[in-house]
Amino acid sequence: MPLYHNDDQAMLADSARGFMADEGAIAKQLRHFRDIACKDGFGHALWSQFAEMGFTGILVPEADGGLGMGHVEAGIVLEEIGRNLTPSPFLTSSVMAATALGAGGDDLRGRYLPGLLEGTSVYAVAIDEGPKHRPERIATSATRAGNGFKLSGTKSFVVQGASADMLVIAARTAGSDDDVDGITLFAVPKDAAGLSLDSVRLVDSAMAAHVKLDNVQLDADAVIGEVDGGRAVLNKVLSAGRVGAAAESVGVGMGAFDMTTTYLKQRKQFGKLIGEFQSLQHRAAHLYSELEIARAAVIKAQQLLDGGSDGPVSERAELMVSVAKAKAGQAAGLAVKEGVQMHGGIGMTDEYDIGLYMKRDRALAEFMGDQYYHAQRVAVLSGY
Amino acid sequence: MSDPDAFRAEARAWLEANCPPEMRAPVQSEEDVCWGGRNFKFKNPAQKAWLEACVAKGYTVPDWPVAYGGAGLTPAEAKIWREEMQRIGARPPLSSFGIWMLGPALLKFGTEEQKVHYLGQVARGEIRWCQGYSEPGSGSDLVSLQTFGEDKGDHWVVNGQKIWTSYADKADWIFCLVRTDKANKYQGISFLLFDMASPGVSTKPILLISGNSPFCETFFDNVSVPKEQLVGELNRGWDVAKYLLGHEREMISGAGGGDRMNTIGAILSRNGGVEDPLLRAELAMFDVDALAYGAMGEKFLDEVKVGKGHPAGSNMMKYAGTELNKRRHELLMAAGGSAALEWDSAASNGGSRARGWLRTKANSIEGGTSEVMLNVIAKRILDLPGA
Ligand SMILES: Cc1cc2nc3c(=O)[nH]c(=O)nc-3n(C[C@H](O)[C@H](O)[C@H](O)COP(=O)(O)OP(=O)(O)OC[C@H]3O[C@@H](n4cnc5c(N)ncnc54)[C@H](O)[C@@H]3O)c2cc1C
After folding, report:
1. ipTM of predicted assembly, 2 dp
2. Count of A–B CB contacts within 8 Å?
3. Residues in B touching A335 (Cβ below 8 Å)
């Protein structure tokens, strides 16, 4: 398969680009919901528009009423989300939670997928338990009780947790904290007794929750997939989230880069356009090549994931997903830092958008593992 | 195109039957490379057999038309072919400036007669070419070149000096930039082909820091060049030169695969070379970049084959690929410790790691420096002012 978008994908990219530039624009969404201190940090109206566009069901199989597409297509939407810094539950709900639900039975899918497809429901994913992404270690416990399970523990960095109608929660049903096996995924309704959320605003104005589970009683039908055998599903959810975040990062980087090169062609100092200075030209050219490489790594990872979408994540796909997340994080990180610097003083103002790119980039870099985490994974997966 | 699975099976079977085991080991040194040409001495019978088998099928230049010595593969087939070669670690049967540089330029600018004649020779490995671009006063600012061809009716008489001419002392022919109009800077250069055995051509090898001497000063003293050996239009050689440079840069970038994109952490650790956690971390970051660049190379080639992608993209590839390769060799040296310093011992295979490391420093100079690549990206891709 060639590493570029086919005709259908190019069409989707066109429509996603137009839609996001109009409806998802920074002034209309990010700034608006930030400035009114919205408790969700995003707009539900836009979320229904996502549904009308078909975006919410991109990864949902056709049999379940979705579009049955893949990570390449989800990534197309995410790149535009990134470019416009559009706040939405797309990554958590339509990419990660949808991937988790894909492993659920008819009953769970029937309960949760229609709301997702219609853009009326929002789902969150609770995996990490500390400030750094460490999904290998899961201490939150689920013990058998009555007809189901009792969950206890804490989860952190649950993006849009407080807005979610249901949380996908990874908990331990067997073994000790660092064991690979013994993980089970649960679909936990927001009103479950014993579930409490402390919602905090992040640097990029997104809302994330610290989640407390205090003997949350769930029926057995809340289990997604197999009891104790949740690691394979979790890996799929993680891969989907990582490659999705990487695609969004590339969009953030590209957006910041476009703003910056535009500015280089407008701003004059010393009687010249600042874009005439070779020191800035070279840095812009270097940045361009880093972003292009990141984008190539992301498409490669997406294609590899899509190639084996039915089975567990292949080792080659896992490797390239980590490469993509690390590289996209590096490249976008460089884009926002160079972006702010090359704007001079105006780049430090709240009124100007470049700083918003820097904030979003920082949050995305952390989400689903930063470049150090993923470089480390590349080493381990490569055998050293 | 043919059914991809059927083509893959066919390619795999053919390689299995025809690629000698000795030709499936990584290239260790310059002597392992088959350059072809009038005076080439095969290192062993396997190298010769491998070349001959490929020549017979057009596989030295798989995507060139059959009429010019290629196999006429479609882009998709050529990609499969590359993958199958890589799968068994097959060495290229033939490496040459004729394949990487002159060939693409002739395919675009040559007459039918020139294509049949010169491309066929290249594909069969009969003639080895060298590149006469740089001059002592004209490196990055190539267009200022002074080597002059005086019009003598049916031929030119060429006088001047080139420098850094790789393998000039081993090459049979040269593709050479010659000024044919002194009044016109850009539109006063012609792209000429001539025999290095012509009277008046002489070469003087230059020793590199790696201790090897692969390139030369090249002198032209009243060299007669027949007019039919002009490629493209008179005085429009700059267009041919630039087009060729695009291919040269693509080649140097390593986008086509090979060891340029391989990761190094696993191999180095296996040999017990990486106890230092900070070095290990550097290797991991390098491997991320190498794998990402590998995807970039694949994407770049996929796009080139169908005319997508930016026409100046090879400059970006050259910049990124050569800077990456320099980093790779810095890490190889660091992991190797004092063993990597040995210069001529048998254990070090004649100092191959140190010499290889030094050689890579040229990657970001030859074919246009990294700084020049960044200039080109700024101007042609980013459209920055005054670039
Ligand atoms: C191993 C090797 C093989 C080669 N083989 C061949 C060959 O076969 N045929 C051939 O014709 N040539 C060959 N070359 C020559 C090569 O193309 C030139 O060395 C190269 O183009 C640079 O020219 P220069 O050496 O004159 O450096 P210069 O142009 O003098 O550059 C010196 C420094 O100045 C920088 N610089 C120059 N201009 C600018 C600018 N505008 N902006 C910013 N920085 C600038 C350069 O980047 C460099 O760092 C080879 C070189 C090497 C090292």
Report:
1. 0.94
2. 142
3. none
